Amino acid sequence: MRAKIILAVLGAALFLQIAALIYQIIYYESVLTYGKTIVLQIRPLDPYNPFTGRYVNLRLDSFGMKMPKGVRCPTRERERECKLKLFVAFKDNDGISEPDEALTAPPSDDRAYLRLEGEGHSDRVSFNYPFDRFYMKEQKARYVDRSSSITNAAQNKVVVIVKALGGKGVVENVLINDIPISQYIEDMEDYGDYK
Q: What is the per-residue pLDDT for 69?
């Protein structure tokens, strides 16, 4: 009898773990399919960390904005900063998305938006993006790591494509001069040496 109870509990725990994994996959794919596109300029790539493996470090700049109307931080002397979760709407500026305004609710118009955590300072709030990595195949990431022609930001326009749905964002791809990074690497003359 006791063995049946233990098996039932273990079975339920396994079922919940699998269900949570399936939910995450479905949610991720629905954001990529139905989300609005946000294009963000990134600083030079830094694609390797010996402790976490090969990936492209997106190195997005933090940004500051005017505090939304009606939102205030505590004014006590010890609490000069406050943590806020706000909706940030984006506007298009020559193909690059820029933060347009911070809001307390999702925008009523059709702008793409993310729900970001920020730090408030009197009448301003500063934000950091919640995504900082783009994973790719090991061989290609190693090539990005060793190729100074890719990581030279002055030479290449490097952007990250983020899909946003319901305030959450998922990194879809990294583009170099409007070409997906995987394709860009394959088109490089000396990539064959790394295969």
A: 81
Q: Dump pLDDT digits (tens) for 68-123.
A: 887 777 655 445 677 888 899 999 888 889 999 888 899 988 899 999 988 887 77
Q: Which amino acid is at 50?
A: P
Q: Tell me, yes or no, if the pTM score tops 0.85.
A: no
Residues 18 and 54 in one domain: no
**Helix, strand, coil in percent for the chain, rounding step 5:** 30, 40, 35
Q: Which of 68, 57, 61 is nearest to 98 (CA)?
A: 61
Say if residue 86 is in the same domain as residue 5. Answer: no
Alpha-carbon gap, residue 58 to 45, rounded angstroms = 6
In angstroms, rounded to a whole number, what is the distance separating the alpha carbons of residues 63 and 57? 18
